[in-house]
Amino acid sequence: MSDCPALSYPRTLPSVLDAEDLAHLASIYSDNAHRWSGRSYYNLLHYVAATPHDTRSWAVLRKIEARVAREFGGDGTRFVMINDFFSYRASGVRIFPEWHQDTAFWLNGEVCTGFNLWILLRQRGGLNRSFELYDTSRNEQFYRDVYQGRQGRQTPGARTVWPASKFASSFGAYLGGMKRRGRALPTASRVELAPGDALVLRQPEIHRTDTGALEPTQWRLALGFKFIERLPLVELPDFDLRFGRDWRSVEARFPELLPPLQLGRPWPTVYNRSLVGRPSALRGRSSWMGVSAELAQRELSRRTAALDSSVLLCALLPPTFLVAVLCFIACSRTISESGAKHGVEQKRTV
Ligand SMILES: O=C(O)CCC(=O)C(=O)O
Q1: Which of 14, 91, 105, 283 is 20 to 30 A (C-alpha) from 201?
Q2: Quick one: which atom of ligand 1 is closest to the CA of 210?
Q3: Residue 257 DSSP class
């Protein structure tokens, strides 16, 4: 299966974080989660961007990146962290309940090297296992059927070519169809983890938050990070879906952190403390209509310049009442045209 390097990644990485890191991250979650409603991704990024003096959080991020470099090769620049998510599971609480693949792994094409590093932070009541996944090595026939039957390709030697493509969605329906046809369903795994250990989810693996009733005293908290290889993007995230929408929320609050995503350029490094300190007139509050700080600042200067020249023109004209009214109309039009133009540019901003 040399055509998908992710398939040979280790199942777990032991002791990625130590007890102090875990306590720190768990307290970030418990102190702030009530403010995060509706957002799945980038809660840690929002937190660290708002508290650049919190050196432990930044050190944790660097520690994770260093471990990734050590385990998955490269000099620390091969993989880029594209998002983070706290995963809290308790009775009636499941963050990603449907069977799915992480389509973000395909943004850089078909290299099949993406992975999710999912670190268990805390658990109570014996929830010391990961979410559910169809392990590629335990379900080879299933993946072969899935890929050959639906979207896969076959090599001349009839060996399976691992995911050239991702599934759009609806694994639930696909699995339901298998069940109706009496086909054996794949075997789901839940991987045992000690706090601080990480599960490594390999790019093509189909997964979901675990099911089953829990006692009110049972819960677990994990922190996941998705990584892709730093290669030119062939696709951009769908900004109507959770991941893309949550990217927008970082962009709106911390515009200096997010350079525009561009096809043909790799995913930018956004977990970057030096960007947080970067001077910006709009830093730390909602960006102006959701556009980048630079664009907003350019627009502000343009509006001010337009206003200045209109006022100058008015001052030079004969001071009759009629002329004053005309000047007033001219000034307002300049301002609103400038705003309309800005609206067009805003749509182009990724
Ligand atoms: O954290 C979980 O419960 C599930 C993780 C997941 O589905 C994902 O990372 O896409």
Answers
A1: 91
A2: 3
A3: G
